[in-house]
């Protein structure tokens, strides 16, 4: 029975070794999971900052689009004003031509009118040329504005796609963070159960120690009893031998 008790103690010691190793691995996993959670949380915060910055860029692009639209509308107004200037220039040229014709009819009295008419025509031509130059510049600006608007609209579309991707990534990180926290909680609960098992094993060891001590004490008592019984057996044997000797002596006396 002592051998069985010692075997049980060896088995318990083996279980304790496995528990210690399990606790060590559990602690390592907990630390790794906590590190992953910290990294996940940091990445989640970074994504939130990126989303915020992209939203700012999107707002800025929207303002730029509105400003380009404002420029386009002003260009249209300027074009309308230039058309008026061109119309006035054409009418001025007609007036200058009419003035030249009337001066020719007036003869000597109107000889100064052609000079004035010529100057008016020059001013009209210059106004017309300037208006045409401005029109060309505005047309080029309008083309550039339209190209810029197309590029900004494309950028805005890409921003919307990026925002959607970032939001989905943020959700994934959030789910990962929650899962890792759940794993940490499960590990903590497992550690509690393992430690409770360790406490139970210590209690079993204590009980087994007491039982083994009692068993050893009982074994000692049994050994003492065996010794006493052996002495009694020897005494009985001596008595039996003595009785036989007495019987033999009695028989001899009777025979005589």
Automatic annotation (TrEMBL):
Please state every residue range assigned to the domain named Methyl-accepting transducer. Answer: 1-226
Cellular component GO terms, alphabetically? membrane
Taken from the record, one Pfam family name reads MCPsignal
Quick one: a GO biological-process term for this protein? signal transduction
Could you list this entry's UniProt keywords, alphabetically sorted: Transducer
Report the protein name in the record.
Methyl-accepting chemotaxis protein
């Amino acid at each position: 029975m002592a051998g069985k008790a010692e075997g049980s103690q060896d088995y318990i010691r083996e279980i304790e070794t496995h528990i210690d190793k399990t606790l060590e691995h559990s602690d390592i996993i907990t630390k790794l999971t906590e590190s992953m959670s910290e990294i996940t949380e940091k990445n989640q915060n970074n994504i939130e900052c990126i989303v915020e910055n992209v939203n700012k860029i999107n707002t800025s692009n929207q303002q730029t689009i509105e400003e380009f639209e404002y420029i386009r509308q002003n260009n249209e107004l300027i074009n309308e004003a230039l058309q008026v200037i061109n119309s006035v220039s054409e009418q001025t040229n007609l007036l200058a031509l009419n003035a030249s014709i009337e001066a020719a009819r007036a003869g000597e009295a109107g000889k100064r009118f052609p000079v004035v008419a010529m100057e008016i025509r020059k001013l009209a031509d210059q106004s017309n040329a300037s208006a045409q130059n401005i029109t060309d510049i505005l047309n080029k600006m309008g083309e550039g504005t339209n190209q810029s608007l197309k590029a900004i609209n494309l950028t805005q579309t890409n921003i919307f796609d990026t925002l959607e991707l970032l939001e989905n990534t943020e959700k994934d990180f959030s789910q990962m963070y929650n899962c890792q926290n759940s794993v940490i909680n499960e590990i903590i609960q497992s550690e509690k159960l393992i430690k409770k098992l360790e406490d139970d094993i210590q209690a079993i060891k204590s009980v087994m120690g007491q039982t083994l001590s009692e068993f050893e004490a009982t074994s000692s008592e049994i050994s003492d009893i065996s010794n006493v019984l052996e002495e009694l057996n020897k005494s009985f044997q001596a008595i039996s031998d003595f009785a036989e000797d007495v019987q033999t002596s009695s028989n001899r006396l009777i025979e005589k």
